[in-house]
Amino acid sequence: MTNVTTETKEHEAIAEVVQHYIDGARSGKGEDMKPAFHEDATIFGYAGDDLFAGPIQLLFDWNDNNGPASELEARIAGIDLAGTVATVRLELDNWTGSRFTDLFTLLKVDGEWKIINKVFHVHS
Q: What is the pTM for the complete model shown?
């Protein structure tokens, strides 16, 4: 197997992880997002002027309260891979009326990619 093939398979595996997150946003269920994240993952960003920061459970709770985003459009804008670490930039339009840019840091843990940190920007 060549490095290109290996890298392509890793990119596909990372995209599958991010898809769990997208599916959870669309369903409005934090539980649907959980498989994408490491249990110790964190989230950071600003919701208006307020810092939204802490354990990833904050995201799951917010998503449950926010409800389904059935009109959500999501696009992976980039994946950067270096061995067992990766970053992903995700552009999201119409998450219940808002536009987000999410940046994820992933780590390959026990052979599986997991998001360990999410930082986000809400566009005005």
A: 0.93
